[in-house]
Amino acid sequence: MSISLPADEPPRAGIAARLGGGAGPFVLGLPALVFLLLLFVGPVLRLLVLSVEGGDLAAYEKAVTDGLYLTVFWETFRIAAIVTAASIVLGYPVAYWLTTVSRTTAAIGFACILVPLMTSVLVRTYAWMVILGRNGIINRALRDWGLIDAPLPLLHNLPSVVIGMTHVLLPMFILPVYSVMVRVDRELLRAADGLGASGGQIFARVYFPLTWPGVLAGGTLVFIVALGFYITPALLGGGRIIMIANVIENQVQTLLDWRFASALSMVLLLATLAIQAASSRVQAPRG
Amino acid sequence: MTGTTPTRLALALAGLIAALAPGASAQEPPKPRQIVVNVAGGDTLAATRRIFFAEYEKRYGIRVVDSSPTNFAKLRAMVESGNIEWTVTEIGGEDAVRGQRMNLFEPIDRTVVPMDELPSPARDRKVTLARGVYSTVLAYRKDAFKPGAYPTGWKDFWDVKGFPGPRSMRNRAIDNLEFALIADGVPVDKLYPLDVDRAFKKLDEIKPHVAVWWSTGQQPAQLLIDREVVMTTGWNGRFYKMQREEAGVDVAWPGAMVKVGTFGVVKGTANAYWGQKLLAVFLEPKLQAAYAEAVGYPGTNPKGWEFIDKAAFKYFPTSPDNLPYVGWTNDEWWADNGAAVEERFSRWLLAR
Amino acid sequence: MVTAPSRRPSLPLRLTGIGKRFGAVVAVGGVDLTVEAGEFVTLLGPSGSGKTTLLKVVAGFEAPDRGTVHIGATDVTRMPPGRRNIGMVFQNYALFPHMTVARNVAFPLSVRHVAREEIGRRVAAALALVELGGYDERLPAQLSGGQQQRVALSRAVVFDPGLQLLDEPFGALDRRLRQQLQEEVRRLQRRLGLTAVFVTHDQEEALLLSDRIAVMNQGAIEQIGPPHEIYARPRTVFAAGFIGESNLWSGPVTARDGADVTIAADGMNLRARAPAVASGGSATAMVRPERVRLLGGAEPADNRVSARVEEISYLGQTQKYLLAAGSRRLTAVWDLTAAPVGSIAVGACVTVGWSAADVHLIAG
Fold first, then answer.
1. Fold of the domain spanning C4-233
2. C208 vs chain A: nearest CA distance in angstroms?
C-alpha cells in the first residue's frame, strides 16, 4: 500500500527536518505508543503468559490438533472469507458510484453508510431476524403472494450469518476503497479510452488494478474483523454456526479454562498477523 | 442529579438513627456509605432492587449500588488480584460449587443469617446462600397444537410426529442431557450420575428438528413469539409473564430441571459483615414471595408460600403443586464433569 | 521496425463548423480546420481560448454541440474515442503507474488483441524510436519526467494511429528537457509521416515545430498559416501581440505616397509600405524588434526616432533593448556582433529607425 513518489520529487527528509526532525516526530507519536502498550501489548503478553501456565505447550497442542477446534478455526476462516467476498462484490460498485455523484448525493450516500455503523450490532442483528424469520417480512410476503406454502428456511443458517455480518462490515470495506478511488487520476481512464480499450478492458486493466490497494485494505480489514465476530453468528446462525470467538468466550465464561482460552486467542492472533503480513505482499493484478 | 440529594440525605438520616438506636450492637463494624452487589441483569435486577435492596437500604441506611451481569471470570479475577469491587454477588449453582472450591467466598455467618429456616440441603450450604430457585422448562405455543392436546414433558418434546414443528434447545450440554435421559425414560430422581453416552444417543434423535440452539436467555421467548419454533427449552421466568397473561405460551412442568440461585459474600471484601446482613434480608419469606410474584422465581424459604395465592401455585416450579414432578440439577456433578461434557457437546453440535 | 512500408498511412483531419458550449460559456464557436495527412498543425492560444476543448472534440472526449469531425473519409463525430485510432499524448503523461514501460507501450496493441510476438517486436521498435531501449521493465515512477513523456510518445505511435494529438505535452518539463523533446517529437513526426495536432500556449514552441499554426482566441481561429507568415504578417492585433514581441501603433491612415502610407500615432508619422491599404481608414502598424535598427548620424531611414536606453537584457547572441521615446516605449533586438552595439549602456541616447517595408499594417 505504499504510494510511490515520482522519481524527480524532492526527498521528504527536508520536510521532516523542518518539522523538528530527529526525535521530534517520535515524541509526537509517544502518547499513542504508550496507549497501545498499555491496552494492547500488555494484555497480549498476559495472554501469552497465561497460555503457557504450567510450563508446557499442552494448551497449544490441543488448540491446533483437536479436531473440534480445527473445525471451528476452519469454519471461522471460511465464513470470514465469504463475508469478505460478499463485501467486495457489494461494496466496490457502491464506492465507485459514490465517486461519480455530486457532493450532495455523496454526502447523503455516506450518511446512509455511516448511520448503520453507529447503530448497535445487536439491533441490526435483530432486524435481520425480523426480516428473514419463518414468520418474517420476506416469508410473509411470499406467502401472501401465494408463491410458497411453507416458510423458507432463511434464518438460522450460514447464508443468514453471512448476510448479517456483511451488513455490519460493509462500511469498513466501502470507506477505504472509496478513499483510493477518489485519488485515481481520471486522465488515466481517458488515456486508456483513447488508446482503444473497451469499457471492460479499462476496468480490468487500469481501474481495478489502480483501486486494488483499497480493495486489499478494505478486504483485509473486513476479514480480520470478521474473524472475531461473536454475537451475529450466535444469533443468526441458530447456534449451529460456531466461530472461534464463541468458543473462546465459552472457555472463559463457562468452562473457566483461561489457559486454553489464551492459547486459542494466541493462535487466532498469530493467524490474523499472518494474514495481515500476507495481504501486504499481495501484488495488484497486472494490467 | 438533583433527585439524589434528598435521597442521600434520607439515607444519611436513616443511618444516623440506626446508629443511635439502642438496639445497635457495639460490636458491629462501622457502616460503609454503600455496598456493591452484583446481580444478573434484566427483570430480576429491577425486582431485586425494588423488593430486597429497598428494604435493606431502609433498614440499615446503607446504599446498595448494583452491577450486572453475573460473571464468574470477573469474580475470579477480582479475588485473585485483591481488587475487590463487589461486596456480594449472585452466582449460578454450578459456579457456586466451583467458587467454593476456589475459595472465592466468605463463609456464611450463621449468627447473622438465619439458615435454619431453610429445608435441607439449602440449610447445609457453607459459603453461598440459596435465595431462590429457577428452572429450565419446556415452553410451547398453544396455537401450534390442538386445544387440550398440549405437550406434557420431554417425551412429547422428542415426539416429532405427535407434536410436529421446529424446536429450540440451549447450545450447552447442561439440562439438555437431563432432558434427553428423561425422554428416554429415566425418572427425575435417578438422573445422577448422568449416563452421558445414553443422553447423546437420545439427543441424536432430536438434533435434526432443532432449528435454533439458543445462547442467550431472552432468545427462547422471542423464538416462540416470532413463531420460529413451536416449543423450546428456556428459563421459566422468561415465560412467566406470558403464562400469567394467557398470552398463548404455556409451560409443561414435569421434568423441569430446577437450580438454586445463590449469593455469596466475596472473599476479601471490606464490608463482609454488611454483606451477611444483606443475605439475611434475602431469606425473609415475605420478600421472597413478593419476588416470586414479580418474576416467577420462587424463594427457598418454605414460609414464603404462605404469602402467595394458591391459585397462582401453577406458575412456580417449586410450588406444592409442581414440586413432586421436577428434577434438581446436581451442581456437584456438573462442576466435576462440565468441562469435558460441554466439549463433547460442542463437538456433537458441529458434527454434520 | 516501425518504418514507412509497414505503416498504415496517416490520415487528414477535417473539422467543419465545430461548436461547443459549457452552460452559457461558448468554448468553441464554429471552427473550420483542415489538417493534411502528415502535416503538423499547432493550436496556439492563451488558456480559455478553446484550443483544449477543440482537441478533446477531435479525440472524442467531448461531443460537439454542432459540426462534424472527419478523420480521412470517416465521420467520427459520434464515434467513441477508442475507435477513432488516435494516438494521444497528455500533459501529465498519463502513463499507467502499475504497468512497466513495456506494458504501457504495449497497451494499445494488447487491447486490440495483437499477437504476442508482434506486440514484443513493435514495442521494442517504438521504445528504440525514443531511445528508451532497455527500460522495458521499469515502472513509470522510476523514470524522470522527460523519460516518462518519451514513453507516452512511443505509446501514442506504436499502434499506427491515423492521427496524433499532443495536449501541451511539455508543460511539466524544464526548458532544456523541453527543447530536447521538441526536437524528438518533430523528428518522430516527420519520420513516421504522422498527422499531428499539437496544443500549446507557448508561441516559441509553436513556431519551432509547426507546419502551420492556428492562433486561437475566444473559441475561434483568428489566423492560420505557416509560422513565418503568422510571425511576419499577423492578421489581427491579437495574433501580432501573442506571437513574438512587437512594437504596435494604432491610428488613422492620413496620407498615401505611391506604395507607402502615413499613419499618425503617438505624435509620430509612421511610413509603411502598404499598396493595398486605403487612406482615410485606421490601422495598426507593427514593427518587430529585430527590424528596429540603430542609426548612425546621417544614415537615411523611412522612420527615425530619438530615444533613451532604459533597460538591456542579454539573450546570448543578441540583446534586447527597452527604449523610451518621449512617453512611448519601443523594443529593439540587436546582434551583439554588430560593432557599435556593444558600447551602448543604460541611459545612452540613441537614434533608431526602420524602413517602410519593415512595417506590417493590420487593418482596423
1. Rossmann fold (3.40.50)
2. 27
pLDDT for the residue C4: 40
Nearest to B319 by CA among B295, B336, B342, B298: B298
Q: What does the block give as the cell for A286?
A: 497486472
**A18 pLDDT band (50/70/90 cuts)?**
low
- Tell me how far apart the alpha carbons of residues A238 and A250 are, in angstroms, rounded to a whole number: 16
- A54, part of any domain: no
Q: Which three cell numbers stand for residue B331?
A: 451442581
The answer as to whether A37 is a domain residue is no
Residues of C in contact with A187 (CB under 8 A): 90, 92, 94
Q: Which pLDDT belongs to residue C11?
A: 92
What separation in angstroms does the CA of B331 have from each of A254, B127, B158, B255? 13, 14, 25, 17
Element (H, E) at B73: helix B72-81
DSSP state of C244: S
Cβ-defined contact of B211 to A255 (cutoff 8 Å): no
Which of the four pLDDT bands, split at 50, 70 and 90, describes residue B4? very low
Give the sign of the dihedral formed by CA A18, CA A22, CA A25, CA A27.
negative
- The answer to whether A169 contacts chain B (CB < 8 Å) is no
Which residues on A lie below 8 Å from B98 (Cβ)?
Answer: 256
Q: Are B252 and B243 in contact (CB under 8 A)?
A: no
Q: What is the three-class DSSP state of C254?
A: strand
Cis peptide before B298 (omega within 30 of 0): no
Report pLDDT for C5: 41
CB-CB under 8 Å, A252 with B338 = no
Give the β-pairing of C303-314 and C318-325. Answer: antiparallel
Task: Considering only the beta carbons, identify the residue of B213, B219, B226 that sits closest to A240.
Answer: B213
User: Strand order of the sheet with strand C86-89?
Assistant: C86-89, C163-167, C196-200, C40-44, C212-217, C220-225
Strand-strand pairing, B167-170 and C13-22: unpaired
**Closest residue on chain A to C159 (Cα):** A195
Under CATH, what is the fold of the domain C245-363? Answer: OB fold (Dihydrolipoamide Acetyltransferase, E2P) (2.40.50)
First CA to last CA across chain C, in angstroms? Answer: 54
CATH 3.30.70.270 for the B4-133+261-307 domain, yes or no: no
Best mutation site among A5, A188, A189, A195 for testing chain C: the one with the most C CBs within 10 Å? A195
Distance from C-alpha of A1 to C-alpha of C38, rounded to nearest angstrom: 45
Report domain extents, chain B: 4-133+261-307, 134-258+327-350
Residues of A in contact with B226 (CB under 8 A): 129-130, 133-136
Contacts of C327 (CB under 8 A, 6+ apart): C266
Which of C255, C241, C247 lies closest to C307, judged by CA? C247
pLDDT value at residue B90: 94
Residue numbers of the domain that contains A261: 63-281
Q: What is the CATH number of the domain that holds A71?
A: 1.10.3720.10
**By the CB < 8 Å criterion, does A9 face chain C?**
no
3-state secondary structure labels for all residues of B265-300? EECCCCCHHHHHHHHHHHCCHHHHHHHHHHHCCCEC
Q: Does the CB of B76 have a partner CB in chain A at under 8 Å?
A: yes
Residue C180 contacts residue C188 (beta carbons within 8 Å): no
Say whether the ipTM exceeds 0.85: no
Mean pLDDT of chain C: 89
**Helix ranges, C44-198 (H):** 51-59, 101-110, 116-129, 145-157, 175-192
CA–CA gap between residue C304 and residue B315 (Å, rounded)? 124
Single-letter code of the amino acid located at C307 = A
pLDDT of residue B175: 93
Domain at B134-258+327-350: CATH architecture: 3-Layer(aba) Sandwich (3.40)
